[in-house]
Amino acid sequence: MSDLTFGPARPGETEDLLLLLKRAFRVDPGTERERATHRLVRSDLAQFVVLRDYGEVVAAAHVARHDLRVGEAVVRKADVGHVAVTPERQGCGLGTELMTRLHPFLATEGYHFARLGGLMPFYSRFGYEPFPRRYLEVTVPDLAAPLKGRTWGEWLAPTSTEQRSVRAYCPDLDGPDVLRLGNLRPLALALVSPHASSLPLPPPLRPLSVVYDHGGELRAFAWAEQEAPTATASGNLGLRQLLWDPAAPHAAAALVRHLLHHAAQRGLTMRTRLPYDAQLCEALTADGITFELREMRQAVDGNMVRLIDLESLCQALAPEFAARLRSVGLCPRSGLSLAVGGRTATLPAGLVSGLPPVRVSQSTFLRWALGLETPAETNPPVPPEHRLLLLVLFPRFACVSDTWG
Ligand SMILES: CC(C)(COP(=O)(O)OP(=O)(O)OC[C@H]1O[C@@H](n2cnc3c(N)ncnc32)[C@H](O)[C@@H]1OP(=O)(O)O)[C@@H](O)C(=O)NCCC(=O)NCCS
């Protein structure tokens, strides 16, 4: 017999939740993991959902709200983590019950899709599909090491223009220009602060935020963060955001090179999540930066996504779809029907419809919607009229992001 209820964690449940997480994840006392678990539960209690049996907390999950800017639109992702069932009751269906109740709850909370990392055989039962992770791995050379009669430090030394142009970011002075750069090359997946008004705010002042200022004209902005060392690596410098004027990709490359020096001087690696951008890749190579592009397709245990509400996701994207259609002279009216993972929605279209719906997987649709892949790459079996329209609706985006896994 059981009497299960589901909902957001309540303030009085803090200690029970902590105990559950520590036991389910076998967190040893006195470790950094224990401190991190305490910090998370105490600061983010409202972001936990729990399953109770006769009022006792028996299962839980953490849901971080990530509002992602996609051009003119904002879409809401649930980043699900810390899925846990109290050890004595594992294997009895409570994890299944928690996940089953979670998704209708996320829909009522306005989430458009969810992401998590975990065992695929378990989460695929609830509709999750594998989703790629992409990385740019910059080779950080030993600056003193020789190469063809010079040192790496000499090969990568900033030019006099760069020395004059690269400086620390100052929000008061540069904020409006950084926002303008963001609009020139709209970011997919830039996190929007949940507390921000609908107007985008410039990035705050943080260490390792730099700009390329060419005689008073801001050409690029970068923000990097030093990640804590792990047992196997001495630390990584993660590029969190990179914006640049499309007419000056060399400015973005100069900022990456500036950060590369920072990493080299501290023995850090430089690995960052970065959807591929051909223009940036060319500029990095031209500026002497060696890098690898990696797409990780995980199996068994890895990154997964699931649509929560296809229709409201399409509604949220509607202003951006309309802008894209207008940019090629199409009027956003009549609909193009879409079938994704058993759900349907209608996209604005500039062409007469009446054609069969475009059928794609959830993972594919989300890669399109987030600007990570275009329909030209996916090549779905659709009539030529659809193909053209899909290419207009789903361009590849240039973006830097740490937000999808
Ligand atoms: C994973 C977990 C939430 C599943 O909850 P549960 O109540 O035990 O699961 P259910 O009884 O509903 O379903 C059992 C299924 O979960 C699978 N499972 C067990 N451990 C798992 C794990 N660490 N991750 C994912 N699935 C797991 C089992 O293989 C089983 O599959 P089967 O039905 O094919 O045998 C729970 O076992 C747990 O808290 N584990 C420890 C914490 C953890 O590893 N969390 C997952 C983070 S991804």
Description:
The protein is α+β, with helices and mostly antiparallel strands. The protein folds into 3 domains: 4-63 and 83-102, 3-Layer(aba) Sandwich (Aminopeptidase); 134-296, Gcn5-related N-acetyltransferase (GNAT) (Aminopeptidase, 3-Layer(aba) Sandwich); 307-393, no CATH class. The chain is 33% helix and 31% strand. The chain has 13 helices and 20 strands. Strands 1, 2, 3, 4, 5, 6, 11 and 17 form an 8-stranded mixed β-sheet that branches. A 4-stranded antiparallel β-sheet has the order 10-12-13-14. It is globular and about 75 Å long. Residues 24-25, 83-85, 90-96, 118-119, 122 line the site of coenzyme A (COA).
Descriptive terms for the model:
405 residues, alpha+beta, Aminopeptidase, 3 domains, 8-stranded mixed β-sheet, 4-stranded antiparallel β-sheet, 20 strands
The percentage helix is: 25-40%
Count all strands and give the number. Answer: 20
General shape: globular
Task: Please identify, by name, the CATH architecture of the largest domain.
Answer: 3-Layer(aba) Sandwich
CATH hierarchy class name of the largest domain: Alpha Beta
Alpha plus pi helix count: 13
Topology of this protein?
Blueprint: E1 4-8, H1 14-24, H2 32-43, E2 48-53, E3 56-70, E4 73-85, H3 94-108, E5 113-119, H4 120-123, E6 129-130, E7 133-138, E8 146-147, E9 150-151, H5 152-155, H6 160-165, E10 166-168, H7 171-184, E11 188-192, E12 209-214, E13 217-227, E14 236-244, H8 249-265, E15 270-273, H9 278-286, E16 291-296, E17 301-307, H10 310-327, E18 333-340, E19 343-349, E20 358-360, H11 362-369, H12 375-378, H13 384-393
Parallel strand pairs: 4-5, 18-20
Antiparallel strand pairs: 1-2, 2-3, 3-4, 3-11, 5-17, 6-17, 7-15, 7-16, 8-9, 10-12, 12-13, 13-14, 18-19
This protein binds coenzyme A.
Residues 24-25, 83-85, 90-96, 118-119, 122 line the site of coenzyme A.
